Every structure is written in C-alpha cells, then in structure tokens.
Amino acid sequence: MVEYRIDELAQSAGTTVRNIRSYQDRGLLPPPRLRGRVGLYDDAHLARLRLIGQMLERGYTLANISDLVAAWEAGRDVGAVLGLEQVLTDPWTDEIPGWATYEELVAAFGLDTAPDEIEERLRRAVELGLVEPDGDRFRVPSPRLLHVGAELVAGGVPLEAVLEIADEIRRDCEVIANRFVDLVDTHVLKDADLLGADAGRVSEVIRRMRPLVQMVVNPFVARGMEQRVRAELGDKLEVLMAEERADGRVGDPAV
DNA sequence: TTTCTTACA
DNA sequence: TGTAAGTA
Predict the structure, then answer these.
(1) Nucleotide nearest to A16 (CA to C1')
(2) What residues does the HTH merR-type domain cover (predicted)?
C-alpha cells in the first residue's frame, strides 16, 4: 500500500500542506491514518485532492465542492466512491488541442484509407458536432471526447463504428440530462417564475446540477461496463492474463 | 528535520 | 491562503 506523508501528498496533488489541512478542516478530505503524531495518507486522499483541484479549476468554490461531496457521501457505496474518483481524476494525455489540422485528425485516427472514405468519415464527424470546420483547420469542441474516440480506434474499433456509437451515446445522454431537468423542475422549481424573481435560484440549481449529473452517471457507466466485461469477456480475459503470466511479461496488455 | 496546532493577516 | 511560533 502506497503511503504519503503530508508533504509528499501535497507535492503529488499539486497543492500545499496548508491547503490539505484546510480541506481536512472543511470535511472535504478524510482524516489520515495516524502513526504516532504524523498523518499517513493513501491514494484515496490523493484522488480526492485531484478531484478538488479539478473542480476548483473549473470555477467551483470550496462550498460547492463541499456540498457535492457531502451529497455524494450521504448515499454512497465505498467502492463506488473510489471508482468514481478514479474515473474523474484519471489523467488523460491530451495530445489533441482545441484545434486540429486535417493532417492531425488523419494521424490521430489512423486514417490510411481511401480519400473519399476519409471525406465521408469527416463529414459524419462534423455532422455529429465532434469537429467543426473553420478555415483550413478544425475546431474541436471537446478534445477529451475526441481523445476517447482516438483511443477506441487505436484499440481496434473501426472509426465507422466509433462515430455510430458516439451518436447513440449522445442521444442516451440527452435522455439522462432531460430526466434530471424534469426531476428538478417538478420537485425543486415547481411553478417558479423562470424569467422573473427566481432566475437566480434557477441558474444556481442548474450550475450545481452539472457536476452532480457527472458524478452520478460516471459510476453507473463504470459499473455497467464492468458487468458486461465480466459477463462476456471474463473467460477470455482470464486466458489472456494467464498467458501473460506464463510469458513472464509485465506490460503490453492485449487490450 | 518534519509534523502538528493555533493564531493572525 | 501564506506565514509564524511553539511542540512533540
């Protein structure tokens, strides 16, 4: 088990010792295990600090984060929380900037097919809003989304299938988003005057809902995938891992 | 030396 | 959020 002393933890998380103590006082960070007088922190603390840091960067206040953490922990399952923080804080190498050239897109998605086929894929990507043509370049509204697509392609999923499922997932997410909006609408806002005196409250609710939805959806998606993977690929995976061990290899996972 | 608490700005 | 004093 990896353990950090407070100074090491602060460095790893890109914050300061002072802030860690501050977060602890506010209940944003669980207390460390104690050995004598010194606190020992682990990866869960590091993940939490990264989550806090990311949310602060996005403009949320400590009070906002505190509310969300409290809300989440009120109905949590320990394993799911750890999984959630893992998902939310996993660093992803974002080699694709908010803008990409035609050549960069072709390279990122390994498009070595016929030119007319490339045009077709690109047309579809534009249609889905994944990239937007702008002069001789393309604007990438969500580099992270594009990165996921590139990862899938690198993993052997045909780009055609990636684009297809991107559209399906977008529709599914719209359904989820609408459910949350309906929920708040019927239970919180009720017959509030959206354009009048309650506008501030409405925007506050909306502002707080965004990360909440992300926090709720992430573990469900992770759990759903885990179940499917276990059910359909479990045996194959076991065989592959057994072969890995037999070969005495460490890395080079067979995706 | 480092950690921790408390306090002040 | 940074800094400082006094401890363990």
Answers:
(1) C1
(2) 3-71
Nearest protein residue by Cα to C1' of nucleotide B3: A38
Residues 6+ away with beta carbon under 8 Å from A201: A189, A192
Report helix, strand or coil for A238.
helix
From CA A140, how far away is CA A126, in angstroms rounded?
Answer: 10
Whether pLDDT at A55 is above 50: yes
Identify which of A162, A100, A164, A172 has the alpha carbon closest to the alpha carbon of residue A135. A100
**What whole-number distance in Å separates Cα of residue A129 and Cα of residue A139?**
10
Amino acid at A211: P
Q: How far is the CA of A66 from the C1' of B2 (A)?
A: 30
* Extents of the domains making up chain A: 6-89, 99-161
Note the pLDDT tens digit of each residue in A169-186. 888 877 877 777 677 677
